[in-house]
Amino acid sequence: HVQLVESGGGLVQPGGSLRLSCAASGLSFSQLNMGWVRQAPGKEREGVAVIGYDGTIKYSDSVKGRFSISKDDAKNTVYLQMNNLKAEDTAMYYCAADPTLWCPDVEVGPHFADFGQGTQVTGS
User: Residue 123 has what pLDDT?
Assistant: First the structure.
């Protein structure tokens, strides 16, 4: 299993920016498929962005053009840069990882094997 620790959440005004980070350990990071998923109160967990071990990236339609996922294999870290935040982006954001499960679709993220503890993002 992969251990994942997120950081970077917080309270932000609409239109503001945040960068989430997720440090991974336990398996070879460069071979992991990584993603960010979010869950708002009363809603199901949804995929936000995924990045395959080969660098393939997919975003949900709701964040395309505003959010950017990236990874640094040397630091075993994946990032989510969130710009132009909206009130509807308010949710708990989870980092997700899987060494084998992959398809080029953002909704693969909620089905990954391992998740972090989550970090809260609130657009006031």
Answer: 85
